[in-house]
Design brief:
alpha+beta; four-stranded mixed beta sheet; 47% helix; disordered C terminus
Length: 220
Amino acid sequence: MTTPGNRQNAIVMYSDPGSIHCHRVRLVLAEKNIQASIEHVDVDALPEDLRDLNPQASLPTIVDRDLVLYDARVIIDYLDERYPHPPLMPADPVSRSRTRLALYRIESDWYSLRPQTGQPSAVQAEQAQHLVESLTASVDVFSAMPFFLSESYSVLDATLAPLLWRLPSYGIVLPEAAAPVMDYAKRLFSRAGFAASLSPREKEMGVSIQSTHVNPQFSA
């Protein structure tokens, strides 16, 4: 990815350096080796040009020439169609529909259980426990193929990797029973695209998902 000073013929992405949804888009950009200028912005002091471009002033937002897009899934769909190699969605309609359904389930079943800043600590702990239980119950899916429900890297992996990377920041360490989830996560984290996608804040998060307990202490 390019630096903000090299914008010619490059996508510009406005990104919150700690946002899981911005991370998803940065990961797709990196995995597809798409030239992009990443503008990390302070969510409490959004630049005026972003407000002019996006009436919702939401992140992530991308600008590709005259096109402005926001919402992570909309952006990822566009990037996969605009830059089709390597593809993140299957070629045939049936498989694409199944992948979209799996993506919906990941967002509704796992993303929705992320402990959120501002929640009471008891609610955060309950959310974390449910997330651990749900991931652990799905070990057979994580171990069935090299990637999630696929022999090749897909949009599902680009969605799961930012979530799994953040588990320690949610105070979550997966149990031994979730070893296949840990192994899957390590495969994703070892990819060059994943390393390239990390913001400075995300690099500081680090990752350690190899103990046997859940620690209900949460960071932002």
